[in-house]
Amino acid sequence: MSPGSVKAPVIAVVGPSGVGKDSLMEALLERIPGLVRQRRIITRAPELGGEDYDAVTEDRFAALCVAPGFALHWEAHGLRYAIPRDIDELRNRASGVLVNLSRKVLLEAEAAFGTLVILSVTATPEVLAERLMTRGREDRAEIERRLARAATPMPAGLSQVIEIDNSGQLEEAVQAAETALMPWLQPERV
Ligand SMILES: Nc1ncnc2c1ncn2[C@@H]1O[C@H](COP(=O)(O)OP(=O)(O)O)[C@@H](O)[C@H]1O
Ligand SMILES: O=P(O)(O)OC[C@H]1O[C@H](OP(=O)(O)OP(=O)(O)O)[C@H](O)[C@@H]1O
């Protein structure tokens, strides 16, 4: 098998709202050669900041779900999220593909992607509350709902879960994640 025929790993970054998933992904993209991020399709209003996403209406989401179909999709926070099938092509030309997933779709993701490395990002409830207030993307009621969901357990039976504590400095979490990911990356695509 030639090196180019091996698909890059899908690297799922998961954890409660406000834990630092987007911040960690942005830092990893700057540091790791050949690492890319898969854009998500979300039924969220456009330009709310944070990640770069394709904003669609509920109707458009439903239509895309039928054709061309999604690699993965789920519902959370009153929104619908999807990973487009383009991710397959991205895996042919990257050292790794980062994607922000719901914890509840991880077993399905493992079945869909094969090589799935999961970065499970954690922080204390107090830290989460403070960060969500600082980020300011959601109103207070929505922040309360997100905090109530924070303790969602990881599904049992996942094969590759790496826990990353982001309670402290972001730089420490980035360093830990980079070290843990190194053995999984496709070095010939840097
Ligand atoms: N280690 C950290 N220390 C301080 N602030 C952080 C840290 N990690 C993330 N943040 C901040 O916390 C807020 C939430 O981070 P974000 O990356 O949007 O989280 P998530 O994507 O998990 O919801 C943002 O304002 C971000 O700048
Ligand atoms: O089932 P859970 O593991 O709790 O995850 C639910 C949703 O929360 C996050 O969304 P989003 O990135 O929109 O929100 P966040 O940045 O506040 O985490 C994550 O990407 C999932 O779509």
Write the layout of secondary structure elements.
Blueprint: E1 10-14, H1 21-31, E2 35-37, E3 40-42, E4 53-55, H2 58-66, E5 70-76, E6 79-84, H3 87-90, E7 96-100, H4 106-113, E8 116-122, H5 125-135, H6 140-148, E9 161-165, H7 170-181
Parallel strand pairs: 1-7, 1-8, 2-7, 3-4, 8-9
Antiparallel strand pairs: 3-6, 5-6
The structure holds adenosine-5'-diphosphate and 1-O-pyrophosphono-5-O-phosphono-alpha-D-ribofuranose.
Description:
GO terms for molecular function: ribose 1,5-bisphosphate phosphokinase activity. It comes from Phaeobacter piscinae. Catalyzes the phosphorylation of ribose 1,5-bisphosphate to 5-phospho-D-ribosyl alpha-1-diphosphate (PRPP). Belongs to the ribose 1,5-bisphosphokinase family. Its EC number is 2.7.4.23. With 190 residues, the protein is α/β, with parallel strands linked by helices. It has a domain at 3-37 and 92-185: Rossmann fold (3-Layer(aba) Sandwich). The protein contains 7 helices and 9 strands. The strands form 2 sheets. A 5-stranded parallel beta sheet has the order 2-7-1-8-9. Strands 4-3-6-5 form a 4-stranded mixed beta sheet. A hairpin with a 2-residue loop joins β5 and β6 (79-84). α5 (125-135) packs antiparallel against α6 (140-148). The radius of gyration is 16 Å and the shape is globular. It starts with 9 loop residues before the first strand and ends in a 9-residue tail after the last helix. The protein binds adenosine-5'-diphosphate and 1-O-pyrophosphono-5-O-phosphono-alpha-D-ribofuranose (PRP).
